[in-house]
Amino acid sequence: MHLIQVDSVQRWMEDLKLMTDCECMCILQSKPISIEKDEENELMLSSQHSTCDNLQLLLKRAWIVSTEFTRIAQKLEKNRWQRVHSMTVRVNCHVRSMINEHNMLTRNSSEEMHQFEKLLIDKCSEFTAFTERCIQTEDEQILKSMKSCINETLSTVAQYFGQLIELILTNGAQNLLRQIEFSDNVYITELALSSLFSLTQEGAHLCRIIAKEGGVVALFKICRQDCFRCLYPQTLRTLASVCSVEEGMHQLEKVDGILCLADILTDSSHSEATRAEAAAVVAQITSPHLTFSQHLSSFLENMEEIVTALVKLCQEASSGEVFLLASAALANITFFDTVACEMLLQLNAMKILLAACSDKQIVDTPYSRDQVVTILANMSVLDQCASEIIQGNGVQLLLEMLFEKSSSGNSAEVAACERVQQKSAVTLARLSRDPEVADAAVKLSCIPRLIKLCRSPTERNNSDSVLVACLAALRRLAVMSPDRLEDSDFQQLVKPRLVDSFLLCTNMEESFV
Predict the structure, then answer these.
(1) Which InterPro entries does the protein's record reference (predicted)?
(2) In the structure, what pLDDT confidence band is assigned to residue 222 with cuts at 50, 70 and 90?
(3) Which CATH number covers residue 130?
(4) Which SS3 state, helix, strand or coil, does residue 393 take?
(5) What is the pLDDT of residues 122-160, one digit of tens each?
(6) Which domain holds residue 451?
(7) pLDDT (tens digit, 9 = 90+) per residue, 149-201?
(8) Inside any domain, residue 131
(9) Distances (CA, A) of 347 to 259, 303, 305, 352
């Protein structure tokens, strides 16, 4: 309860400036205190607020106004006319305040912008007048006939508001990209990059705007200039965010971005931080969760160079973060194209990854182990992998991963632990078709652990995917060594159909005796 109160107070403190501005606007009716232009004051305000700060303030106001639109629609549905009117007045004030503040902080606004602002203000005034007439009448028939008009006006106001916000955000992105594209000053470019990266963290919509306005082109332009080498990590980090949307990916393909990334990754003169951020971009564009990444034809042309560089980066990583980025890129590539698994085998990647797992300074989180076991699971479809696993003591590692537990209880970390357990069981199931691997798994007592995961929901954090993977691995090992299972385990977990065993385990209550 205490945490909730603190969060509420902090949120109120953040919104306080916006809300007090609104109250001031109610009293002043949007009239400026002075009609004279105070250019010195305007200059001071402009220097205090960067383009990014202005846009982030705008997004906060937009969130408040959008919330008010939703609440007005709800009150209108319940015929709460007095509340509808008061909230409409408040929205009117917020919109006028936002426009005035934006004009004060932004010089040389376009004619199109001014037209949109006027259109929105006029529509807000019309909306307020509508709702005011509603509270002055008690005739139900008249109110009923006006309700549809108010709904229509509310939709129009919301539409105009959305278009204005879109235009302001687009202009802000254009200004930042102009600074990045035409500046030869490292300090100015760094500030613009920092602002652009902050905007990409505001969500996919901002990333789409930046991509549409040529953000990918401008960022790769920096990555092709030696004078900006110190800015490569920051630039690549921003690129990874922009390329999380389809528009960014299309731009990447058009400007030969894959080739540029390959050049950075294979050039040992670049810092480890730069190559790690390039790996992060590769991880982003090859993510199996993206439906539009399969169209990267140029990636296949450069895949061998990229995979080789990423394996080297994993081998030479000086920190857990660098290893995580490089291994995440490799894991995604193994989903992206099956040929990558054969490349990894030729590059001794299995040996390198297994060795890295023994270094707790490098593979130090469930997230890193998730990437490693993903690569192992995808490579395990190749018959040649079995001998590599045996030589690198990989079965022992897979057993350890079956014991993966979150130390913090953080939901993201718990989910990562579940994935590690699931994929290690999948890898065991696939590799156990080789008698030598199956024998090693039995000798290391993998069967008791798999049974425990099947029978104890808390051991697998009630994960159904972990349960299915463990049942599959157990059945594969039971074929090789049926005598290692007790009769009850065999009758419940191996002999029935997989779906029947699954249902039995999901309905099983844990015994605390």
Answers:
(1) ARM-like, ARM-type_fold, Armadillo, Insc_C, INSC_LBD, INSC_LBD_sf, Inscuteable
(2) very high
(3) 1.20.120.230
(4) coil
(5) 988 888 888 888 777 777 777 777 788 888 888 889 999
(6) 382-512
(7) 888 888 889 999 999 999 989 988 998 999 898 888 999 999 999 999 999 99
(8) yes
(9) 21, 13, 11, 9
Contact (CB, 8 A) for 288 and 330: no
Residue (of 193, 286, 287, 197) closest to 242 by Cα position:
197
CA quadruple 106, 110, 116, 117: dihedral sign: positive
Rounded Cα–Cα distance for residues 407 and 417 (Å): 10
Q: Which amino acid is at 461?
A: N
User: What is the separation, in whole angstroms, between the first and last Cα of the chain?
Assistant: 35
Spatial separation of the C-alpha atoms in residues 250 and 18, rounded to whole Å: 38
Examine residue 455 and state whether it is found in any structural domain, yes or no.
Answer: yes
Query: Which pTM does this prediction carry?
Result: 0.81
Query: What is the rounded CA–CA span in Å between residue 153 and residue 147?
Result: 10
CA distances from 164 to 161, 201, 460 (A): 5, 21, 50
Amino acid type, 106: T
Chain centroid to CA 241: 8
Helix (H, G, I), strand (E, B) or coil at 427: helix
